[in-house]
Amino acid sequence: MSDARTERGTAGIECRRFDVAGPMGRLSGRLELPEGRPPVAYAVFAHCFTCGKDILAAARVSRGLARLGWGVLRFDFAGIGESEGDFSRTGFGTMVEDLVHTADGLREAAAAPALLVGHSMGGGVALAAAHRIPEVRAVATIAAPADPAHLRGQLPPGTEEELRRDGEADVTLAGRPFRMRREFLDDLVERSREQRGLIAGLDAALLVLHSPVDSVVGVEEAGELFSAARHPKAFIGLDGADHLLGDASDAAWVAGLVDTWARRWVHGD
Fold first, then answer.
1. Are strands 25-34 and 71-75 parallel, antiparallel or unpaired?
2. Pairing between strand 176-181 and 168-173?
3. What UniProt keywords are attached to this protein's entry (predicted)?
4. Among 118, 134, 136, 148, which has the minimal tally of Cβ within 10 Å of its Cβ?
């Protein structure tokens, strides 16, 4: 079941709190809609690893799409931000489940998403979840790795060894402490075996957006992702943008690119 309550939004946007029942408890979301007109279609935005739905990249891209006519639901994965759940018991697989449950909640309350947008690890999650959401016609990834195992290289030095040895560890990610378990690594290995097949079998159009100067997820990941997918697909280089789209103009650019590209696949216009 979903819980949608109207909140004060920004100019041209109606913003509602939108909570969904997930596998680990309540998933907290924000549904942003174009003010005064029905949306052209609905989308779900999946945020980067440990970032949360309110990170600037997620908020700016989602609101940019809403201003352009989309209904966009961004949410916190379990154990992150305002969502319930124990982060130490999450992993790539639980993120996929969270996205599927969020799409189910949106379908029940309004309409199923025709578009999935995923940033960084959220892009990989969107690709893995798309085959379980039959209404999805398009997937757009932003600075996404081709393989979930890429995340192992982003952990602080010695973390993987400590997790393998002790079974759990306190890890600082993006300046915040998180408790992690060895099962997180095991899940990454398992999901990595499946991901390329899921990308190759994607029954939706794919847009790969990636900056050639991304210092967190190298652009070579975009090349592998693009190569693994079948047509229809497109790649656009986000020249000069950083991984988190820290410049507001870059986020607006991304929203415009996704809008222009996705409409063709969602409505044929």
1. antiparallel
2. antiparallel
3. Hydrolase
4. 134
Over residues 84-111, the pLDDT tens digits come to 999 999 999 999 999 999 999 999 999 9
Q: What is the 3-state secondary structure (H, E, C) of the chain?
A: CEEEEEECCCCCEEEEEEEEEECCEEEEEEEEEECCCCCCCEEEEECCCCCCCCCHHHHHHHHHHHHCCCEEEEECCCCCCCCCCCHHHCCHHHHHHHHHHHHHHHHHHCCCCCEEEEECHHHHHHHHHHHHCCCCCEEEEECCCCCHHHHHHHCCCCHHHHHHHHCEEEEEECCEEEEEEHHHHHHHHHHHHHHHHHHHCCCCEEEEEECCCCCCCCHHHHHHHHHHCCCCEEEEECCCCCCCCCCHHHHHHHHHHHHHHHHHHHHCC
Q: 234: which strand partners?
A: 207
- The domains located in the chain, with CATH, are 2-267 (3.40.50.1820)
With beta carbons less than 8 A apart as the criterion, state whether 115 and 137 touch.
Answer: yes
CA nearest 177: which of 156, 191, 146, 192? Answer: 156
